[in-house]
């Protein structure tokens, strides 16, 4: 039984009865909000309400106290609500919440919000399931502390929405004045919300309260002392508690007993008032309880093991102190009673009146934090192996235990995260120089390795508490770190704001500033994510110039690799190769490459392989991919090995080696054991697999003379559709922007061919929509290759549909909008000319048709093409068209082609071959073309 339970409940009967009457109206929508200043008796009201409701057998939760540093968002409150339901509910909630938080920055915003709604629905369904048996009441205290300050409005909107979905459950909130009232009043009708404000006790209530305290403590105050407490407490329950209990414990100030009530106010004006005097005795540190109170005012909640380590007590002494602390009115049990914390108003008073007296230079508090930081760091490293042991059990035990082990792993993770926040906060408080370095190393490691962007932001918030005390170098590092978090986010406008912030910082830096390179690098990264490749390249080249000038040999390879990547995105393959090789040469100068440099070198080889593959240099490409794979194998990076295998397979697909490509892609897929971790790899693998199935689905038919006559193996085409749909689903779900244009366009192509061959108009309509989305997305993300490809795709689909009148418009748009890319993407400029030629051929305008072929085929030849768009495929179709023409016309048109292809030996030879075949045809049969 708590100390509050032993007191006669006085002064709040009207409030209590009003709440009980609301609770007893079952199956009604209702929310209760109780507000009042600190120490006014809100927690006491909740305790008494809990006791009364239990007596009339209404299911009531434990009091969920938000005055612990674990309530960062609405889901943290829901976690405690889930804990009050069935064990299985809590376990499943915790696992699903872990998934949601890991998905926060991996899913697209649409997919993330849908997963969040599903998680909320799960909890609502579980609450409603249990409340079918009886009315449920959830008691939630100190709600002004619920959620980080910047998200509190959002938290209360979420809570309001949650409450609207409950059938027979009611949430009762208590706390100081906050935004909660405004939002709840906007969310609920007048008869759905009960708002109560607690005020100070009347004199009569104070007298009854003191009498109750005397009975509780088996202790009698003198009449004179009672009168003084009545006057000085101002009707505040917590001040009454101080006066009575401290008299009982014989720590009450001498003047309170010896001086007259008339003179005491004058004394208090000089010392900070009655509330200050009620905690000032702690400065004497006469007892272990005083020392514990000081500790809890800064570091909380604590269990007996924590107390033993932080106060340097024996286990037995700490356990006795922990038990004794429960008898003090200002100590409250939290986390199911396993830990204790100070009442928040007492914490405020100790900070305001005690620490300022005993620790004016903060050295005492810093020393406490040094001990705490060291202790929590040790706990952090102890929790790591616990997680690994459970993970080993998870993979070795039978499936019946798997769910429970996963739940235990998540509990360990949550404990470790909370412990990490306490470690880093205390490290920063103890020593900003060492603490900030520790914070930066630990938090950056978590940022790179962890999927929980929310936790990283929480750790960032800890550092920001100390921002005003950081030196200029530390502030810069904090800003750069925050920019890297923004880089990891999916929100475009946030990235744009961050770019503007960094550009302003850049202007404020002197030309010889040691920070310029970092700013340039992050600006390059952010602009790359925004698909502003020209801007990104400008910044990364500035960064590269600076790191080269300062001879930062370990930094050069990574930056040069980024510059090469940007040149590749801008279709300047020569410059891309130059910078990839510059990065490689710089890396080779490092005597002992560490794991990080090895990964950069592997990335450079992988990028070079992709570049050589695009240039049709398949031997060099294969060599680079193998080197990349070997390097990533040496540092055990399965995900990156899979990436190299996919890149290699892409080149094989382009080269028509479909069997080997399929083997590589299946091997890459086998390396992926978790969609959440491997979504990008899976997305790319399924995309290439879809292309592979599509290109290999063509049924070879020597009689085909027009693309619309090509037949496909519908089974393989359906497999291609399935793989591409998987790829598209992953790209949409995880917001993989850079993957979308190509997936949309190639999926559209497969849909079109399936629909065209089966006569399914709905599939063709879907193809048109997907291709249009590809075009728009490509423009938005500055993906010129697929903007051009999807525009040509529009012409191709209209050719199949015989909407010939649109095709010249597409050709004009291609020329007007993308002319500067013609040399880079000759295949597509060649294809649009060939499509125009096909239109003219269908309309028997052979001169125009062959004029277009004369222009288009050399461009396709220059690129080589791939799959159904390869130069061999195009020449085969052209040959079959020639065979349909009258002999003399065919000869004339072949001569025209040869004349225009004078500079291309291979195409000239092809014309000679066609002329000879035409002569042979002349001896056999006339043309069959209508």
Molecular structure report:
This protein is mainly α. 69% of the residues lie in helices and 5% in strands. The protein contains 42 helices and 9 strands. The strands form 3 sheets. A 5-stranded parallel β-sheet has the order 2-3-4-1-5, with helices on both faces. The longest helix has 34 residues, at 363-396. The protein starts with 12 loop residues before the first helix and ends in an 8-residue tail after the last helix. 40% of the residues are buried. The mean pLDDT is 90.
List keywords for this structure.
930 residues, mainly alpha, 5-stranded parallel sheet, two-stranded antiparallel sheet, 42 helices, 9 strands, 69% helix, elongated
Strand order within the widest beta sheet:
2-3-4-1-5
Distance between the termini: 100 Å
Fraction of residues in H or I helices: 55-70%
Mean pLDDT: 90
Bulk shape: elongated
- Secondary-structure-derived class: mainly alpha
Which segments are poorly predicted (pLDDT under 50) over 5 or more consecutive residues? Answer: none
The rounded Rg comes to 37 Å
Strand content: under 5%
Short description:
With 930 residues, the protein is mainly alpha-helical. Helix content is 69%, strand content 5%.
Map the helices and strands:
Blueprint: H1 13-23, E1 31-35, H2 42-55, E2 59-65, H3 74-83, H4 87-103, H5 109-131, E3 136-141, H6 152-164, E4 169-175, H7 180-187, E5 193-197, H8 203-217, H9 223-233, H10 237-248, H11 254-258, H12 264-271, H13 274-280, H14 288-296, H15 304-310, H16 315-325, E6 331-334, E7 339-342, H17 344-358, H18 363-396, H19 399-430, H20 432-449, H21 453-464, H22 472-488, H23 492-508, H24 516-529, H25 533-549, H26 556-569, H27 573-588, H28 595-614, H29 618-634, H30 638-654, H31 658-670, H32 675-695, E8 698-699, E9 711-712, H33 714-734, H34 740-758, H35 761-780, H36 784-800, H37 807-818, H38 826-842, H39 846-863, H40 871-883, H41 887-900, H42 905-922
Parallel strand pairs: 1-4, 1-5, 2-3, 3-4
Antiparallel strand pairs: 6-7, 8-9
């Amino acid at each position: 039984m708590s100390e509050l339970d032993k007191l006669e409940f006085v002064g709040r009967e009207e409030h209590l009865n009003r709440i009980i009457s609301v609770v007893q109206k079952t199956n009604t929508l209702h929310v209760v909000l109780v507000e009042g200043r600190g120490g006014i008796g809100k927690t006491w009201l909740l305790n008494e309400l809990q006791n009364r409701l239990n007596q009339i057998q209404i299911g009531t939760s434990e009091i969920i106290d938000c005055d612990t540093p674990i309530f960062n968002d609405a889901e943290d409150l829901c976690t405690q609500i889930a804990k009050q339901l069935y064990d299985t509910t809590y376990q499943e909630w915790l696992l699903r919440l872990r998934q949601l938080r890991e998905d926060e920055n991996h899913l697209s915003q649409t997919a993330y919000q849908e997963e969040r709604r599903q998680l909320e629905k799960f909890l609502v369904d579980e609450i409603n399931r249990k409340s079918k048996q009886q009315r449920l009441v959830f008691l939630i205290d100190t709600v002004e502390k619920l959620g980080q300050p910047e998200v509190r409005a959002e938290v209360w909107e979420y809570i309001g929405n949650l409450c609207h979905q409950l059938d027979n459950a009611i949430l009762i909130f208590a706390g100081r004045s906050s935004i909660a009232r405004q939002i709840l009043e906007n969310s609920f009708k007048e008869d759905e919300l009960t708002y109560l404000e607690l005020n100070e006790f009347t004199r009569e209530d104070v007298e009854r309260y003191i009498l109750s305290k005397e009975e509780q403590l088996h202790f009698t105050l003198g009449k004179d002392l009672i009168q003084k407490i009545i006057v000085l407490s101002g009707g505040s329950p917590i001040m009454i508690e101080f006066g009575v209990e401290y008299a009982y414990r014989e720590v009450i100030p001498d003047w309170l007993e010896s001086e007259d009530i008339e003179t005491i106010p004058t004394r208090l004006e000089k010392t900070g008032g009655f509330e200050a005097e009620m905690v000032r005795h702690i400065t004497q540190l006469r007892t272990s309880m005083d020392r514990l109170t000081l500790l809890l005012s800064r570091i909380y909640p604590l269990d007996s093991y924590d107390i033993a380590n932080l106060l340097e007590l024996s286990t037995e002494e700490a356990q006795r102190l922990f038990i004794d602390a429960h008898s003090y009115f200002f100590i409250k049990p939290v986390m199911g009673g396993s830990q204790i914390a100070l009442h928040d108003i007492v914490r405020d008073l100790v900070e305001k009146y005690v620490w300022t007296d005993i620790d004016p230079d903060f050295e005492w508090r810093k020393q406490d934090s040094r001990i705490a930081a060291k202790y929590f760091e040790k706990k952090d490293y102890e929790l790591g192996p616990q997680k690994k042991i459970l993970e080993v059990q998870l993979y070795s035990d039978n499936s019946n235990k798997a769910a429970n082990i996963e739940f235990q792993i998540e509990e360990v993770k949550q404990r470790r995260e909370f412990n990490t926040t306490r470690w880093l906060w205390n490290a920063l408080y103890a020593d900003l120089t060492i603490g900030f370095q520790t914070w930066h190393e630990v938090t950056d490691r978590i940022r790179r390795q962890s999927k929980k962007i929310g936790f990283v932001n929480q750790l960032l918030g800890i550092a920001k508490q100390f921002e005003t005390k950081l030196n200029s170098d530390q502030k810069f590092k904090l800003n750069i770190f925050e920019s890297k978090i923004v880089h990891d986010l999916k929100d475009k406008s946030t990235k744009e704001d961050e770019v503007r912030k960094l550009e302003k910082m850049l202007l404020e830096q002197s030309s010889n500033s040691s920070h310029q390179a970092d700013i340039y690098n992050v600006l390059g990264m952010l602009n790359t994510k925004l698909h502003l490749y020209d801007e990104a390249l400008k910044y990364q080249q500035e960064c590269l110039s600076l790191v080269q000038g300062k001879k930062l040999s370990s930094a050069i390879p990574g930056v040069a690799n980024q510059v090469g990547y940007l040149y590749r995105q801008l279709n300047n393959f020569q410059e891309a190769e130059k910078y990839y090789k510059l990065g490689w040469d710089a890396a080779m100068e490092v005597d002992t490459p560490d794991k990080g440099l090895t990964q950069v070198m592997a990335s450079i080889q992988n990028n070079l392989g992709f570049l050589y593959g695009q240039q049709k240099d398949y031997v060099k490409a294969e060599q680079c991919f193998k080197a990349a794979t070997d390097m990533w194998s040496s540092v055990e990076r399965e995900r990156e090995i899979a990436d190299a295998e996919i890149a290699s397979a892409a080149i094989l697909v382009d080269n028509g080696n479909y069997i080997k490509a399929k083997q590589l892609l299946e091997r890459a897929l086998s390396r992926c054991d978790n969609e959440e971790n491997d979504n990008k790899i899976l997305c790319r693998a399924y995309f290439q697999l879809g292309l592979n199935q599509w290109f290999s689905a063509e049924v070879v038919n020597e009689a085909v003379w027009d693309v619309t006559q090509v037949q496909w193996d519908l089974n393989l085409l359906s497999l291609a559709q399935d793989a591409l749909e998987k790829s598209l689903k992953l790209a949409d779900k995880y917001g993989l922007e850079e993957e979308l244009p190509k997936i949309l366009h190639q999926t559209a192509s497969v849909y079109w061919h399936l629909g065209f061959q089966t006569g399914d108009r709905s599939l063709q309509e879907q193809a048109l929509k997907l291709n249009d989305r590809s075009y728009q997305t490509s423009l938005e993300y500055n993906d010129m290759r697929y903007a051009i490809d999807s525009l040509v795709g529009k012409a191709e689909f209209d050719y199949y549909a015989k909407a010939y009148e649109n095709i010249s418009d597409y050709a004009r748009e291609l020329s007007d909008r993308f002319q500067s890319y013609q040399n880079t993407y000759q295949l597509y400029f060649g294809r649009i000319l060939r499509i125009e030629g096909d239109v003219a051929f269908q309309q028997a305008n052979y001169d125009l048709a062959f004029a277009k072929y004369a222009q288009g085929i050399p461009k396709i030849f220059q690129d080589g093409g791939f799959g159904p768009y390869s130069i061999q495929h195009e020449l085969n179709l052209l040959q079959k068209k020639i065979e349909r023409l009258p002999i003399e016309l065919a000869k004339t048109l072949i001569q025209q082609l040869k004349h225009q292809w004078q500079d291309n030996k291979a195409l000239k030879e092809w014309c000679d071959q066609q002329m000879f075949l035409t002569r042979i045809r002349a001896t056999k049969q006339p043309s069959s073309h209508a």
